[in-house]
Design brief:
The chain contains 15 helices and 24 strands. The chain has 431 residues and is of the alpha/beta class. The chain is elongated and about 65 Å long. It binds ligand EPZ. Ligand EPZ binds next to helix 1, helix 5, helix 7 and helix 13.
Length: 431
């Protein structure tokens, strides 16, 4: 069982290079399966979720090879409508994007029901409702989901495009959902006619998926607003695309500097994506300087507490909620954190309390009384961002912290130990 060991109390300084966006790769890599050709995707983060996604792509017949450390070439010409088995699909939530891409290209998809971090119920009713509006039926049995167009055939059998194709539709989501927005964009790219997604999510990784589809010959407009229009095209020809930097990894290192103190330059970022997070940290007392593709954060005095409510983009991201809570544990005064997206995203709080934090969770609100010190302890990560929150607390804590189940952290953060070590943190991996 691998764990991180952190001797806290050392301020951070220097440069950290932000990797490509995990939640952009989550939908863009499955999106490459739509292409009956070859594409190159760069700035792909080397994280375990990407490794698993590539394994699924290859299982479906794609040929994937690394051109360099962060660039992959995907040849989708031999992709066949196959099965995403449970041993692969149930390990992460993002496996459901293979439904949109395989349904979009072949008129059918057979995918294990998704897994992923335990944040409460994670239904996919909005995805299935959208697919149904485009003419697909779905059937769930033995943990597998079969979505298909009645009478659909593969490209080869049908002999021509059109038969067994989804039909464009006007789809209005009942709530803002990142996953369903991206999944329906994937399904609509090759559909017959126009699809309009209303009440669509606006996250940066949704704009990135639209950019990818258009670079491959697709016709998507309105991404980043709450109405996205996709005109189906007959085929996607392939091309090159570079993923955006990871907004949440950027925010995580900003939070690490906010907790541990110091002076950190984050390189290869898009400051505009960080606006809300930067405004919160600056209001708490951090010094923040922005350039075209970098952000410098400095913290020397104790920060002031504040109140946070997570919202869909451009609000405060739910995926930064555990990390900012860790920072608030050491800030002056009372803070509150309201989680409006997920029903069960405070499980990390008990772990922070083991380190001396004062957090009381009442339903979807955590009330935090700032303390002057946290103390090293043995703790465990329950999910990706909860693990990141424990690392942040450990960097600021007095003494040694050991964090178990760091495999969760490595699902979404490339080389966190190396990046933090280069910033002066005393952190290492203990097998
Ligand atoms: C994506 O999850 C991200 N994961 C999550 O990041 C992130 O927390 C979430 O979006 C919100 O930003 C990936 O992109 C792989 P949703 P997703 O569909 O798509 C409800 C991380 O840490 N809902 O936007 O699953 C749902 O229950 C992960 O990187 C339905 O009710 O989230 C939730 O309350 C954790 N029915 C809300 O909508 C549906 O069909 C938002 O979910 C779909 C969603």
């Amino acid at each position: 069982m691998k764990q991180y060991v952190i001797h806290g109390g050392k301020p951070l300084s220097g440069e950290v290079f932000i990797s490509g966006a995990k939640n952009a790769a989550a939908s863009i890599l499955p999106g490459a399966m739509l292409i009956n050709g070859i594409c190159q995707i760069s700035n792909v983060p080397r994280i375990s979720d990407v490794k698993l996604t590539i394994e699924i792509m290859e299982r479906l017949g794609a040929r994937v090879k690394y051109i360099d450390a962060e660039t992959i070439e995907v040849d989708g010409r031999a992709v066949q409508p196959g099965t995403v088995p449970q041993e692969l699909g149930s390990q992460m939530r993002a496996s459901h994007f293979f439904i949109g891409s395989m349904l979009g290209r072949f008129g059918r998809a057979h995918v294990s029901l998704p897994g992923g971090c335990g944040l409460g119920a994670r239904p996919i009713d909005q995805h299935l409702k959208g697919f149904a509006q485009m003419g697909a039926c779905n059937r769930i049995e033995d943990g597998m989901l079969q979505v298909s167009i009645p009478g659909s055939q593969t490209d080869e059998e049908s002999g021509n495009e059109g038969k067994g194709k989804l039909k464009g539709a006007r789809i209005r989501f009942d709530m803002v959902t990142v996953g369903a927005t991206m999944n329906l964009m994937l399904a609509a790219a090759l559909a017959k006619g126009t699809t309009v997604l209303e009440n669509a999510a606006r996250e940066p990784h949704i704009v990135d998926l639209a950019g990818f589809l258009n670079a491959m010959g697709g016709d998507v407009s309105g991404a980043g607003t709450n109405t996205i229009t996709i005109n189906g095209v007959s085929s996607l020809k392939g091309g090159e695309y570079r993923l955006i930097p990871d907004q949440i990894e950027t925010g995580t290192y900003m939070a690490a500097a906010a907790a541990a103190g110091g002076d950190v330059s984050l390189k290869g970022v898009i400051p505009q994506h960080m606006e809300y997070i930067s405004s919160v940290l600056s209001a708490m007392g951090m010094e923040i300087e922005e350039g075209s593709d970098f952000i410098v954060v400095r913290k020397s005095n104790r920060l002031k507490g504040t109140d946070i409510t997570t919202m869909p983009y451009p609000g405060f991201p739910t995926d930064m909620q555990p990390q900012i809570a860790a920072v608030l544990c050491l800030a002056e005064g009372r803070s509150t954190v309201r989680e409006s997206i997920w029903e069960d995203r405070f499980r990390y709080a008990e772990q922070l309390c083991r380190m001396g934090a004062d957090i009381k969770v009442e339903g979807r609100v955590a009330v935090i009384e700032g303390v002057s010190k946290l103390y090293g302890a043995e703790v465990e990560a329950y999910d990706l961002r909860a693990g990141a929150a424990l690392v942040i607390a450990a960097l600021a804590a007095v003494g040694t912290t050991k964090i178990k189940h760091v495999n969760y952290i490595e699902r979404g953060y490339h080389d966190m130990v190396g990046k933090l070590s280069r910033l002066g943190a005393d952190i290492y991996v203990e097998e």
